[in-house]
Amino acid sequence: MISASRSCPLVELNSGERKRAGGETIRTGNACRTASLLCWVAVRLVISLAMLCFTAARGLALDPRFPPGHNFDLSHWYLTLPDAMASTISPAQLTAGFTNAYFHTGADGAMVFYTPVTGGTTSGSDYPRSELRELLDPTDNGVNWPGLGRHVMSAQCKVMQLPSSRRVVIGQIHSYLGAAPPLVKLSYNNGAVEALVRMEAASSTDVRLPLTNVGLSNAINYQITLSDGILSITVNGVNLSTNVFLADPAWMQQTFYFKAGNYCQDNSGPTNEASIVAFYQLNVQHSPPSAITITRVTASNNSFCLIWTSRPGSLYSVQGVTNFNSTNWLTLSPNLEATTDSASYCIALPSPYHFFRVAVTSQ
């Protein structure tokens, strides 16, 4: 299974005529193919992530005397409330000690999210929520993270009460650009914990992936990870994963953020009908993609070889296109498992492909 690429150096192989930086023309006939290949390797970083970000809302020593902003670091989250206006509470307000009926500290120190079915909704939803939304930049919700790199949200929570629909969403990866569909929603459905995955970005249909069963008021330990297009969800030790970049390359063009809390999947009933979710731990971590550097290129009359930096145990593939402007990268190699800090692959010549890149397919 191939993930369509990450931090991918690009190498150009051209059989025409080019100029050196100093202006000298090189002709690449058969007699001087090797020289031209070695002289005309253009290495280009297709995707780079120049940031290493760690944002955390983690349970400290939970103390029922204090608001959630004391027990948890909420400096990189804002809160949406299920009041009539679907009000939002800023990171500064949360860290200053905001609390109310919809968001407060429980008797055991938990961060409690209360959502009545009659609550107000945001413009893009039919359902009310008391839910945190991640902010990489506390002052700008337009700054989000790409699907490349490794992005992890870990939490421990308990679903304490359900509405008549018996459903509530307790965690999400949501996209930001365009129509901004959710990539995955972690749903508690009458005791069954399920991942609702949007395999196609333009679709309105989720693929339902069952994980495990957890009783009401019992602990749910979950982790949602997006690592170079590989979506992985673990709940109480049960794991599933899928390559969303492979399922729909449109996800590669998106940026994302995490959400956690109580997104009630019901919107009708008496005013005292509600969902209640209590959180005991919430951590988020972001890591940039590992750099791939093509360190050497060799060529002969019948092959063209790339050598690049690698991580032992990781899988790589070599991809190619016929022209620079093409986005239809074709995988030319099988999955190549690195055994040392250097890996290589050779392409047979002549080849219709003139541009090459190395992609990480799994870590």
Brief summary:
This protein is mainly beta. The chain has helices spanning 33-39, 68-71, 91-95, 244-247; strands at residues 9-12, 17-19, 25-27, 44-45, 77-80, 88-89, 103-105, 111-116, 129-134, 145-146, 150-161, 167-175, 182-189, 192-197, 207-213, 219-227, 230-235, 238-243, 255-264, 274-287, 294-299, 303-309, 315-321, 330-331, 336-337, 342-348, 355-362. The protein has two domains: 9-47 and 315-362, no CATH class; 68-287, Jelly Rolls, CATH 2.60.120.200.
Report on the structure:
The protein has about 375 residues and is mainly beta. The chain folds into 2 domains: about 10-45 and about 315-360, no CATH class; about 70-285, Jelly Rolls (Sandwich), CATH 2.60.120. It is about 5% helix and about 45% strand. Strands 5, 6, 9, 10, 12, 13, 14, 15 and 19 form a 9-stranded antiparallel β-sheet that branches. The protein is elongated and about 80 Å long. About 40% of the residues are buried. The model is unreliable at about 1-10 and about 15-60 (pLDDT under 50).
